Amino acid sequence: MQTSIYLGVLLIFVNLAIYFVDLSSGLILTCFIIFYFAVLLSALIYNRPVIINELVSFATQYGQIQKTLLYELELPYAILDDRGKLIWTNQAFEQIAQKGKKYRKSITTIFPEITMDKLPFENDEETFSVLSNGNIYSVKLKKISTKELAESSNMIESADYDGFLIAIYLFDTTALNIALKEVDDQSLAVGMIYLDNYDEALESIEEVRRSLLIALIDRKVNKYISSLDGICKKLEKDKYHVILRKKALQDLKEQRFDLLEDVKTVNIGNEMSVTISIGIGVDGLSYAQTYEFSRNAIDLALGRGGDQAVIKTPENICYFGGKSQQVERNTRVKARVKAHALREIISGKERVVIMGHRMADVDSFGSAIGIYRIATMLEKKAHIVINEMTTSVHPLIELFRGNPEYEDDMIIGCQQAIEMADGNTVLVVVDVNRPSITECPDLLRLCKTIVVLDHHRQGAEIIENATLNYVEVYASSSCEMVAEILQYIDDNIRMRHEEADCLYSGIMIDTNNFVTKTGVRTFEAAAFLRRSGADVTRVRKLFREDAHEYKAKADAVSQAEIYRGAYAISTCTSEDIQSPTIIGAQAANELLNIKGVKASFILTDFQNCIYVSARSIDEVNVQIIMERMGGGGHMNIAGCQMEGIPIDEGIGAVKRTLDSMIDGGEL
Fold first, then answer.
1. ∠253-256-258 over CA atoms, to 5°?
2. The pLDDT value given to residue 194
3. Sheet of strand 609-616, all strands in order from the earlier edge strand to the far edge
4. What is the 3-state secondary structure (H, E, C) of 192-260?
5. CA neighbor of 430 nearest in space, from 372, 491, 474
6. Which ranges of the chain have pLDDT less than 70?
7. Residue-level pLDDT at 12
8. Which 3 state secondary structure label does DSSP give 166?
9. pTM for the whole structure
């Protein structure tokens, strides 16, 4: 309509130009223009209301159609205000929420998972999953600014207005999740099953029954794996290779690997029950990696003493079982082989650096002295790394300080050791296999040749790339292991009485005066040390306690709480005591003498850290309890550390751990 007016204006200018050419022609055109504008104005007056009416009708119908389409859209959709309350919902959303059109409460009342902190206040979008009526939905929350609406409104001052609405979409991902889970359940899990004490069990029965015992064990293992729809293939006389679906692992976890206990029931007159170790790898990026996980898992199970199952994934490691005492090997062939290997390693280097764990105890220092004797016998310069001297090792260290038979730099600090570390240095780590709690973790990175000698069960954290790794969990102490190695290093090895006293002290302390975890080889090692000059009376005098420390230990015992009728829990003071953690450990041992106590836990607040000493005799595996709390140790002797919490919270953490493990059937 406006175009017609513009054309009329153009005709007026044309008419003016024609007047200059011919007057009569200009008059004729003027009459036409007058008639043209008369017709145009008539059409404008008549058609304008009709056109506007059509436009309004179209807009109204278009908005109604759009609203109907959105309301009937199969995708669940709703609009919330900035506080999370429902403003508008479509039909699909109402069916899922099972609410009517007029429901105007918070979205949290329908989906408890959608709390205020999950609304998109900071970000423009938020996405997460919720569960409703057995279905899984992917929820998308999108922030919609209403500032433009406010600017065109006469009721809202839009200068500082920053209001918004929230659009919520629901996508049903139930079928997708089921499909993904089905694919995941069918993925490969590789397992290894080893018989821990195959030779020892066979020796305990007559020869004619041995084949029957092996057949019964084979049948038990094969039948168990077959029930899980798995494949079991015997590789060697005491080793099995297992292929399972990942779904079967969940069944194994729920049964808590009862095959571990089932195998022990096989008895045809054998004095010793057969135990097995299981290692399973799963979720590897390739079949080869999954197989490697299973190998790592079985090595970890064996390194922790056997009679347990280990599941290794890329993210974590799970442990099951491990409730039996380790079986002591009567043969010392392994000790001889490791001794010869250690001799070769030390002989090829210029110097030896020896370190134990932080806050060294008697076993750590005693075994370090044994390695020092081996190094000096092989005419190599040796140093022992100790940063902080505890009261337990102070009497032993004083035997060497100022002694003319020993170098002044026999005991050095961490910084000195770092300066010495190079390609010609052997680092010998004793009484610890966790790099984070060694005396100087940096040495593990600087030294290329590393030897590990330890008697603690291995955990997920291990010293990697060790040239020689000798970890025997059945040994009573590291001093026992070193005493055995000493006998094979050289036939004519000579020890000074100070060194023999240190090694004997380590065995005596770790076995609680030859009461705990003492085997035949423990007494054989002690006999060797006695022949080498160790004196029982002299050792006993070294470890007489200070009166104040003795009172602190007695106080910890007297204040003990017997939790759930079988677990003694107490605290040990650190005031005016140089090494309160050692006093706490001694108090934990004392609590085991109380009838009915299965395990004891002493908590010591020292240097802004809570040290937990856990002890048991044979009824409870305190190692798995401490591992649950981030620590580790042995089946009967374990501990952990908790930083940044008061001692009351530490006691609560111990109780909660015991409750969850008892309720879950682990204890």
1. 125
2. 92
3. 561-563, 567-572, 599-606, 609-616, 637-643, 632-633
4. EEEECCHHHHHHCCCHHHHHHHHHHHHHHHHHHHHHCCCEEEEEECCEEEEEEEHHHHHHHHHCCCCHH
5. 372
6. 1, 49, 147-163, 322-331, 460
7. 84
8. strand
9. 0.59
